[in-house]
Amino acid sequence: MGKLQLLIMNVLVVFLYGACQLPQRPPQSSTNESKHKAQDLPSNVTFFGGGRSKEMSMVSGKTDTIFISVHQADSVLIKIKTPTDTANVRISQLFMPDGSADGPFGQELAYRFKDVGQYHITVNENKMIGNHYSGPYVVQIVPIVQSF
User: Fold this and answer.
1) pLDDT (tens digit, 9 = 90+) per residue, 95-126?
2) Domain coordinates of the chain in residue numbers?
3) Regarding predicted confidence, which is higher, 142 or 44?
4) Hey, what CATH class is 45-143 in?
5) Which residues have C-beta within 8 Å of that of residue 92, sequence separation ≥ 6?
């Protein structure tokens, strides 16, 4: 295999890996009414100690761990918001009460919590992108409105 073919293969692998890392977003409703309802809905999923919004500060190269309490099975969207949309901050893993883990994710994670207990997420920079970020970010838990 020639050097050019090897270079092309490496570029394709990096591109495909990056494409797989894009966050999957749940369908968005176009009405303000449904967005307003989601914010007012009680949630069975909160941050440890209560609340559905947590202000954090990222230090480049460090990983933040955020604990989540699930009181009853529920579906939520966990979002990371930064002052700029280009900040390199993501939910890297979700750890379940049984010790298993899932990830990596992007800046949003739609998840159906089935088991009651303590979960936690880790938040850090995406090392594949390489842009360093230090600064504020907010993590929010937003109930997903189920329509039947």
Assistant:
1) 999 999 998 999 999 999 999 999 999 999 98
2) 45-143
3) 142
4) mainly beta
5) 63, 103, 104, 105, 121, 122, 123, 124, 126
